[in-house]
Amino acid sequence: MATYISKRLLAVIPIVLFAIFLMFLLIRLSPVDPAEAYLSAAHIHPTDEILAEKRHEFGLDQPLWMQYVQTVKGIVLLDFGNSFVTNTPVWQEVAARMPATIQLALSSILLAIAISIPLGFFSAVYKNGAIDHFSRLLSFLGASIPQFWLGYLLIFSLFRQAGFVPGGRERDLAAFCTAQSDFVPGIDCCLHPLASGQCTGRAGAAVCLVCADAGN
């Protein structure tokens, strides 16, 4: 067992290295200059001297292979450096957003469980009925609609058009993910697990019904 686990863990290493290389390559192929983006965010006019200084500070003037080695080294040591935009440690950026992320994840999971289990149960009990057809449609939509597209659609329709939640400014978008308004973003995040969960619940309930009929 230990040998099997060790082999599986070793097999993960080249996959992780390739993922890091792909991420590194996509960032370096981006037309956006990180130094220029940082200066623009800081409202500093990007002169050639300042750009060269910032590129040296960010290590962008080093050869690509050296930048890649430094990137892998930083990830292994859990040192992700500073943000190119805010020039603050990445861990601080992640930690500042972690509470809202956890809150949204928990709310979407609870919402998916609260809907998928009873929906799957009644779909199995009333097979080919209205509830069953609705659950199948929900499963199809949940598996096919991209979350990012649904999120933009909800923000546009509920923020800008219906006025269901306030404004459209950054602080209003942050308030959109508070405890008072978790329901709407929770819909976006829970749609896919809701679809798979109700399918699992329907299958489990159907098996229980078949076993109960066989026992009778």
What's a concise summary of this model?
By secondary structure, the protein is mainly alpha-helical. It has helices spanning 2-29, 34-41, 48-58, 64-76, 90-125, 130-144, 147-161, 170-175, 183-215.
Provide structural commentary.
The protein has 216 residues and is mainly α. The chain has nine helices and no strands. It is elongated. The relative contact order is 0.09. Residues 167-172 and 176-180 have low confidence and may be disordered.
Secondary structure topology:
Blueprint: H1 2-29, H2 34-41, H3 48-58, H4 64-76, H5 90-125, H6 130-144, H7 147-161, H8 170-175, H9 183-215
Helix pairs in contact: 2-3, 5-6, 5-9, 6-9, 7-9
